[in-house]
């Protein structure tokens, strides 16, 4: 049995961020910024982006979540430049490319949102430097990179320190290529669990086991958590 199905696994790499970030994400109200690559539905003839968009709108309608939506990398850059960005969750459903072994190093790793443009970490650092524009909401950042042939753990060598230095409480995401359908379903089920109040480490362990026992699916092991596993939404939304 893999350790990931028995234990809560978390990793907080050294960086310039808060060494003891707050564990509780204030749910009064919960504020979230979500940015989807809408091209994924069109390119793969799916409805996974539509389903996630509808999920977040239901949270907004029924649980008072304050929702900010984006489509492009420039939308994300503009969020990260806001001096008082209060979003406690930043969620990106996108393609992601690892290039840490290339000449450009970790800064050449990139995400791709709507429009087909790959935007490197170097560009984010240039437009929204880590030593400026601190994230007031100390967000949990979820980079849900899918359908990404060159995705690997090296992707996080640069993105995790960058977001921690900007004040994020942690980062999570897959460390290898994940099908869009699974990535979408994982995110919906995870957030659906988190709004009930359990710690994120416990929620991820529960979800891995659910996919294994009910669907014989090991892909939950792809998701890594770079923050305190006791992080939770409190008070819960339901």
Blueprint (SSEs and pairs):
Layout: E1 24-26, E2 31-36, H1 39-44, H2 48-63, E3 66-70, H3 73-80, E4 89-97, E5 110-112, E6 118-120, H4 121-127, E7 140-145, H5 156-165, E8 170-174, H6 180-194, H7 200-215, E9 223-226, E10 232-234
Parallel strand pairs: 1-10, 2-3, 2-4, 4-7, 7-8
Antiparallel strand pairs: 4-5, 5-6, 8-9
Question: Can you walk through the features of this model?
Answer:
The chain has helices at residues 39-44, 48-63, 73-80, 121-127, 156-165, 180-194, 200-215, and strands spanning 24-26, 31-36, 66-70, 89-97, 110-112, 118-120, 140-145, 170-174, 223-226, 232-234. With 238 residues, it is α/β, with parallel strands linked by helices. The chain has one domain: Rossmann fold. Strands 2, 3, 4, 5, 6, 7, 8 and 9 form an 8-stranded mixed beta sheet that branches. A two-stranded parallel sheet has the order 1-10. Strand 7 (140-145), helix 5 (156-165) and strand 8 form a beta-alpha-beta unit. The longest helix has 16 residues, at 48-63. The chain is globular and about 45 Å long. This is CHAT domain-containing protein.
